[in-house]
Amino acid sequence: MVITSSSMFLFPTASSLLVTIMSIINLLSLTAAGYMEMSGKNKQYAKFCDSNASKNPKDDKNFHLKSKNGMLLFYTPSYVVAIASLAIFPHQNLRFLMVLYAITIHFFKRIVEVMFVHKFSGSMMLDAATTIGLSYAVSISTVIYAQYLSMEFPEPCMDLKYIGLAMFLVGIVGNFYHHYILSNLRKNGDKAYKIPKGGLFDLVICPHYLFEIVGFIGVLCIAQTMSMFCYTLGTIFLLMGRSHATRKWYVSKFGEKFPKDVKAIIPHLF
Prior knowledge:
Layout: H1 5-9, H2 17-38, E1 64-66, H3 67-88, H4 94-116, E2 123-125, H5 126-150, H6 161-183, H7 207-223, H8 226-254
Antiparallel strand pairs: 1-2
Helix pairs in contact: 2-5, 2-8, 3-4, 3-5, 4-5, 4-6, 5-8, 6-7, 7-8
């Protein structure tokens, strides 16, 4: 048997045309979203989009949600998909269950943060929140189904699931820690933005995105499927674009007060 790079690190591509197509769509759509973020064409859920909103609410015919409710709409469908998958596939192999539990924990954490950690101001459009929430759910469904199909193939030569578990835990803890720092910037109903300090904020303006990427790479190492590879790579491009836009926003808002040596997401590089 000739060992190829794919059989060394990844399961063979899932034997489903639908999964293959959806995996490519996930990669392309997330990459395009990252490019749009970097180009300044931000989605209507980021803090730097308020300036693009209509100054007179009567002129805006779109239905808006409070930001907190919109963020819940982002994450709840994917959490429901993950929980449903645990019920549908209760007795599978260890790798499959590790992927399911990692995804479930990831979205459960996000919902908990929205409810109890993050502080919100402003609103977002209902159609944007719904579209993003459904797209997350479809992507997660594709990843889970691809993982299920991968069980018909031999294991990759290199088993990375325990390395992946360690990376996932580092990512989720680091992401939560920096979200907690962000939440403590505002005291007593203060809605003004401040330059974050502490943790890795002294090196990059979006360390929470950096740790989110570490977490997704961890899930990829657990899954070792092409579908998860596409989703992870697309997410990396998206978060790099969003971090670039975030740094640009801080520079425009704070000018010379913003430290020039603080990068977007990768210390000393980007």
